Amino acid sequence: xxxxxxxxxxxxxxxxxxxxxxxxxxxxxxxxxxxxxxxxxxxxxxxxxxxxxxxxxxxxxxxxxxxxxxxxxxxxxxxxxxxxxxxxxxxxxxxxxxxxxxxxxxxxxxxxxxxxxxxxxxxxxxxxxxxxxxxxxxxxxxxxxxxxxxxxxxxxxxxxxxxxxxxxxxxxxxxxxxxxxxxxxxxxxxxxxxxxxxxxxxxxxxxxxxxxxxxxxxxxxxxxxxxxxxxxxxxxxxxxxxxxxxxxxxxxxxxxxxxxxxxxxxxxxxxxxxxxxxxxxxxxxxxxxxxxxxxxxxxxxxxxxxxxxxxxxxxxxxxxxxxxxxxxxxxxxxxxxxxxxxxxxxxxxxxxxxxxxxxxxxxxxxxxxxxxxxxxxxxxxxxxxxxxxxxxxxxxxxxxxxxxxxxxxxxxxxxxxxxxxxxxxxxxxxxxxxxxxxxxxxxxxxxxxxxxxxxxxxxxxxxxxxxxxxxxxxxxxxxxxxxxxxxxxxxxxxxxxxxxxxxxxxxxxxxxxxxxxxxxxxxxxxxxxxxxxxx
Length: 535
Description:
The protein has 535 residues and is α/β, with parallel strands linked by helices. It contains 14 helices and 20 strands. Strands 1, 2, 8, 9, 10, 11 and 18 form a 7-stranded mixed sheet that branches. Strand 10 and strand 11 (183-193) form a beta hairpin.
């Protein structure tokens, strides 16, 4: 077992994690862990863009209001205001780092997406996440105080309470090295969880392999952090439907630039359900597509932008155009077959305005966190914005905290695998993985009911016991670690969904089709949570 020490350990190497790393003072030693290669993960695959007020015709108040409306009035106003007002500064920081946002003449080209009242989406063609990720990786590699590790997956957090040392402060994590098969020890004065969301709990998802398996949320829950609003899972309305296209997203910007949703017979339908038609928020569009697919029994609907000039399409959507063409679909001449797919987790680990969790020394940023920004439904392109704003806020808070305290690492035991054996039954992992994602899709998907949730709860309890027994007896590996985390977050999603007796935003149940006049978050408290001492 190898042992590593740093001032700040960042688990996750997407936009949130790398933003935090690059905003920490250069005198702090920072270690950043990537589950796979640095060029993987959810940020890399983000197409649309990043939202911010960059036009004289727009105002922060408009962006705030759009976020609150999309969030079905459940967004926390302080978080929304913090994010929106810090938005232009944070985007300017990305520009200063070298992110090549698309320009038109002397100005940045701004596009419009569903739920936005103005054009305010900065983008780099239709591969914004890749442009941001590439730039931040280059800057991180050039920084003398940042050390990057690939192919490392976190197993569990290490806290002083777990070691019997009283106060529940996080001092590191056990990390599985996929190259050696060993579990290494990473100690740090502060730890940031930037591991993304939990959409892999569902059968169909826009997230790439290795991403969105709920790792940070599950680890924080096991360590004693509260989680909230896990029932709000955003299903992106338009994922490419093709047997050879795994998790390929068709950007919101396609609809923003005039793309029309149509049934197989060529008729439009969105205007019959919402006056904003194709530019309605994602929850409405996804639920409408799901409704129409079930109504007429089709496997997909069409997204058609072929009425636009071919050069316009190729210039604005080169990645989508090329990928579809590889699969025999020329989007300049024919519509794109699309279906909704699990895309984004609006709930997560509860944090304050700086990303600090319930445990001292532990922070969560990006999709892992619950800041209150997204409410019951995330407004398009607010996700990358949240990553940069909160990554920067967490870095500033950590620097201030570490400047005030002297942290000495205690003795921490090595990972003990003397009692486990190599498994010759890996088929159990794949079977349980498939079963979990299928019943989550069927029972805890776009449309829910009490009966469906009860069935899901029963099944997740059986799976949890089987997976935990398996975890206790065999050497850990990537798929077992992810499966253990997924069954944890699936249980959290189900519990939150059962606790919300109304329909709001991304949570729609046929048993409670109306929204309640009361606004509340569904907060789950772990058994090992330590309630703060009241003054």
